[in-house]
Amino acid sequence: MKKFFFPSEETMHEGTWLNWPHHYTYGIEHREEIEPIWIAMTSALHKGENVHIVVYNDFELIRVTELLKNAGINMTHIDLVIAESDDVWSRDTGPLFVLDEGGKLAIANFAFDGWGRKASYEKDNNIPQEIARAKSIPLIELPDFVLEGGSVELDGHGTAMLCKSSVVSKNRNSHKSIKDAEKYLAQYFGVSNFIWLEGVLDEDITDGHIDGTARFYGENTILTVSEDDFFELYKGAKREDYLTLCSAKNARGVPYRIVEFPLTVGVVEKAGIKGCYLNYYVGNEVVLLPAYLDENDARAIQIMSELYPDKEIVPIDVRALYQYGGMLHCVTQQQPKS
Question: Is the pTM higher than 0.85?
Answer without folding.
Answer: yes
